[in-house]
Fold each of these.
Amino acid sequence: MAGEKINLEFITEYLHTLFPQKDGILQEMETYAAQYAIPIVHPEVRALLEFLCKIKKPIQILEIGTAIGYSAMVFAKQLPENGKVITIERDPAMTELALKNIQKAGLQSKIRVLEGEALEVLPCLQKHFDIVFIDAAKGYYHEFFDLILPLVSDEGIIISDNVLYKGMTATDALVKRRQKTIVGRMRQYLSLLCSSPYLTTSVLPVGDGVALSYYNKSGAADKRF
Ligand SMILES: C[S@@+](CC[C@H](N)C(=O)[O-])C[C@H]1O[C@@H](n2cnc3c(N)ncnc32)[C@H](O)[C@@H]1O
């Protein structure tokens, strides 16, 4: 097992032909990300985010992990006039690139980039979010989640990216020593998502693995039956 992709190469290649590159600034960002090895959402994950926005119709979206602003812009393009994406990024160089890209796309009124460590920024937020997208340091998803849960609207959706971590989450056979702690934490996080009485979670082997969790404050009662 190569430990690189969670799906067979030919399936991934085929899926990429189904989701063609975007136009304009998004396409430029895809090229830039490929050139400088900046991890942005895979095309099939981008399509999933767009799909979820169509059915959920969010107004407020929170993202952890902006990078160059690609997924924030994918979200922003799905929002109504009064919608907003708040996205958190700790790397100042990335924040600068994201702000430039957002300005170039004319999406300043829709996207607010908060520079800082998410674990410090999250406790300062007071809004409620219809969709929360977690796409940052994999070893801290559990900690992000604890801070995010009070910010999620009832019936909101938490999307966690890269949860299968190149297949390592599913089997020790792929785990190298230095990744052991992160993988152990990711497994605990997925167990939490799948066992919480407040969440209905599905884990999809799309991209590098995406967990979709539907939050229902009164869910504890439902799950007794
Ligand atoms: C995978 S990239 C995000 C890609 C972006 N969501 C997209 O698809 O266009 C992850 C980003 O999260 C940032 N990051 C990682 N851990 C973070 C943390 N604890 N707080 C804030 N940002 C973090 C990294 O600096 C990196 O730019």
Amino acid sequence: MKIAKYAAVCLLTFAFAVASVEAHPKTVRITVTKDGFSRSSITGEVGSPLTLIFTRESKEGCGGKVVFPSLGISRNLPVGKPVTIVITPRKEGTISFACGMGMYKGSIVATEH
Ligand SMILES: [Cu+2]
């Protein structure tokens, strides 16, 4: 009986340990207007996939492209067509993104959870 109790406690502890390393996927929609990215400040978790859906709303301005320099990602943003980019932060810190000319800026702040 004692052993069974001990095993149950062990299992519970194990379950918590697993839960704490579980990924928390998150999706954020970002509109790209002539004024920039909205929103431009995003939070994420280390090890959890972050799905960013960029939709460029207007031909005006400089939102034809989104670039993540530190990740080597560059994607064209056709007007009215959502473009999905999935990023999984590997360490704590800030991942910046910008338009092709660096005028519109945004950032993802990744923290451990
Ligand atoms: Cu620009």
Amino acid sequence: MPSLRVETPQRAYDAIVERGCIARLAEFVPPGAGKIFVVTTADVWALHAAAVERALAGRPHQVLFFPGGEPRKKMAEVETLAGQMVAGGGDRSSVVVAFGGGIVTDVAGFLAAIFMRGIPVIQIPTTLLAQVDAAVGGKTGVNLVAGKNLVGSFHQPLVVLIDPAVLHTLPEREYRAGLYEIIKCGVIRDADLFRELAERSREVFAQDPATVDRIIAAAVRIKAEVVTADEREGDLRRILNFGHTMGHALEAETRYDRFLHGEAVAFGMHVATALAEAVVELPAAEAARIHTVIRQYGPIPSLNGITPEKLFARLAADKKTVQGKVHFVLPAKIGAVKIVTGVDGRAVMDAIEAVLASYAALA
Ligand SMILES: NC(=O)c1ccc[n+]([C@@H]2O[C@H](COP(=O)([O-])OP(=O)(O)OC[C@H]3O[C@@H](n4cnc5c(N)ncnc54)[C@H](O)[C@@H]3O)[C@@H](O)[C@H]2O)c1
Ligand SMILES: [Zn+2]
């Protein structure tokens, strides 16, 4: 099974996509390491403790429970966890294992980044979103009252162990939210991946192992390539933002409590696709294929009360806006995108309107 290499100035490591790879955890604990602290949530531990316990049998380790949820992704919780590590005999030789969704991988990664000025972390993501996105690339952090992910650090892991077998317990909605990020990867850089998502949705939904493993590996490959090239090619990382400009606006407009991140990105990809037809001459047939595949993995929550004006106003507040001109990642064809700055506001409003109308027609 694939090992995707991530090379950053801080460290080079593998993201391993392999069923059962949690069993290999001890292989990646450095020789001479001290106590291992597994940071997880009670729900994930209740479902999947056995794999980790088996892998760490005979090694000094302790499980630390983090309450989970976006409101708890904050400094105070990191401080609590650090205190528990000290009380448990943690020191500079300790290792953190992050075992959970993206919230856990962000919090535990940040804990490792700052505990005694930095100790190693091993990432074991258990949601689809964390497997294809959050756990790969070394971004860690927590929220402030003022906004999401405002405090954090780059802390690259020793390894990312991606075991698709843990996904069978994931609620379907969370699974679909992760699938939207994989659709994104197909549109921006991998037409074969896109085709597979279009043609094999039944296998994807049924979690057919060969299919799921292949699409995860394809998405992780793209994240690994982009992170690896990041230092040299600033623009490349931005392609991962396809669907995110408008997705973030929708998340903010609904106070982060109606849409899962991936669902908001699904909406954003519809808007970017409509805009791409107008702005970068994405052929109508390709646009239709993108809309269809996003819909295939739906539904997303109701868009009641959302207006083009409100979303447009949110865009202006986004940090990606330059002098009132928004910029977008727009597909020129499936598998290739352009970053377009200074998109005309009227075209953006039209694209939002068209997507809202198409959802209203379905309701
Ligand atoms: N660092 C990055 O580059 C990056 C990238 C994308 C997202 N993120 C962050 O990731 C977070 C979202 O992560 P998420 O979508 O994974 O949400 P999450 O971590 O809240 O997980 C979703 C839910 O699923 C549960 N769960 C996890 N694994 C499970 C399993 N195998 N079976 C059953 N239930 C399981 C969790 O306990 C939680 O209740 C956000 O805070 C976001 O900022 C970070
Ligand atoms: Zn995203």
Amino acid sequence: MHISIIGGGPAGLYFSILAKKNFPEWDIQVYERNGPNDTFGWGVVFSDRTLQYLEEYDKPSHDEITKEFETWENVEVVHDDEHILIGGNKFSGISRLKMLNILQARCEEIGVNIEYHKEIKDLDHDPTKPDLIIVCDGVNSTIRRNYPSYFEPELSSRSNKYIWFGTNKIFNALTLTFRQNATGIFAAHSYKFNKTTSTFVVECDPETWENAGFASMSEDETRLYLEKVFEKDLGGNPLLSNRSLWINFLLVKNKYWVHENIVIMGDAAHTAHFSIGSGTKLALEDAIALFNEFRRGQALPDPDEATFRPYIAEILKSYEANRRPKIEEYQQFAYDSLLLFENLKDYIHLDPLEMAYTMMTRSKKLTHEKLRGRDPQFVHKIEELRRNSLL
Ligand SMILES: Cc1cc2nc3c(=O)[nH]c(=O)nc-3n(C[C@H](O)[C@H](O)[C@H](O)COP(=O)(O)OP(=O)(O)OC[C@H]3O[C@@H](n4cnc5c(N)ncnc54)[C@H](O)[C@@H]3O)c2cc1C
């Protein structure tokens, strides 16, 4: 079997590892438009659950990844200069680049071919006529754009602007910080991902963005402006820029994920707002789900047999049928969270404790009772606050 994978992000690399490890006779070719160390971005977040999957499916890469991890137990909400800690929220962060380097090395070790600096624009890119093509070229997928009738994408560019920085200020919790100035409201999402660096994503609504005049600011001016907004939070540390530019979050859905022997996965297929920190998790779990379909299937027919291609198409259809409901559920959680950040002006008047509660329950995934299980003291405080406000 010959497999062509377009895009060497977490989805493409992780599927390659699982497939090659379990089916060593398969020929797997990854095409990546960048070099191995070119990625942009800072750290990504994993839940404990994702880590368990990584350990179960490929222990060597799991062990490398967890060596590099920073972990924390709390969410922290900073509002009106008050810091509210909510416990029972175990997460880990790792540099995106470090994680990709680990997956790349593992691919090399087991015999997956990665061709770097190779940009793919069409599905006839591989003269060997691959038996399976996996499209995982990220949120702005070229293949999705060039083959709209295969996937029927539904794209929605959201109104808020966001920008991704690093900083040497260490945020020991997944921290949500709200600050206001004369132009409007700013939110920062921050978390450590190694011993010396944290991710610091800033988000604001379009009115705030206009009022602040970001359209005419240089990268440096933007950075300095935001350092001032979050002066109290950065503790004198600068923001670190790495191609840090304002963008609008692109909500991606596709009506179809499969066309004959072609499947689309990861961010190219679906996105979930970064405020619930699950893009990498979903990409890795897509890879696991697709791999499981092949593992579950009967022994593959011989590639020369006429039944081979239809058999592959059936496996891909089964992947879509099983995976789509899970993704849609996640996208709904993420959408609730996205709406809250788009409408922050309706919440900014809240007492810090109420604000923290609103943030914790924003995706409707975490109910009042589940939150009590995580941090009974926090829930007790909020119940007391509400009782007192009724007196
Ligand atoms: C601000 C921000 C914060 C985030 N925070 C988190 C977080 O905390 N936790 C988390 O889990 N996720 C986070 N994410 C999301 C995460 O980075 C992605 O969801 C995840 O990497 C998706 O994996 P992927 O493999 O589908 O795509 P990508 O990681 O985007 O990989 C796609 C790859 O394809 C390559 N490529 C693109 N086009 C072509 C082409 N035409 N030919 C060849 N190669 C191509 C790209 O160079 C890239 O390497 C965040 C994203 C943003 C923007």
